[in-house]
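Holo model, inosinic acid. Inputs:
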Amino acid sequence: MPNDDSVQLYDSLFALLISADQVAARVRELGAMLEQRYGDKQPIFISILSGAFVFAADLIRAFRAPCEVSFVKLSSYEGMQSSGVLQTVLGIDTTLEHRHVIVVEDIVDTGRTLHFFLAHLRAQQPASLCTVTFLRKPTAALFPVEVDFVGFDIPNRFVVGYGLDYNGLGRNLPGIYQLAEKR
Ligand code: IMP
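Output:
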């Protein structure tokens, strides 16, 4: 696959945007911030699959206090365009009432995913609810959504790496790469 500066996936070239070292440093900071707020609250992290699994795995290990982890699978993307249809594919297997819930997302693009999912979670009456996303594309925030912790604000370009894919490829890249050109 890549040299460190660029990677080819199918017919598209992606250029390095955030290095693996920058990613690791930021995740440590986010883990420490969450630990300050939730270290004595035994929170439950809910990771949105598939994209957030890499971020969630690193984030919970940067959170050095007791916590639980759960996963939910939603889908709204096909290729590089949002399909607009949100489906819960795999639900949460534990009750969230009176729990401190931290939702872990890979990227907020239109905000549709979080908007939908937070409403679903609020209905379960958690003690508190906060959101952490690794990436955010602010220009594309079409749906009103509060994000409490953001790893990086990035330009409104399609990106891959660190869990994010382009039609299934790129999730294993340790850094973030943005779409450079199409051949
Ligand atoms: P939203 O619902 O429009 O905010 O989109 C959120 C979901 O779309 C994320 O969880 C990703 O799975 C996917 N997504 C949004 N932007 C990108 C991107 O640039 N690359 C890969 N997936 C993306």
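Residues 28 and 82 are 30 Å apart (CA to CA). The longest strand covers residues 68-78.
Archived with the compound record.
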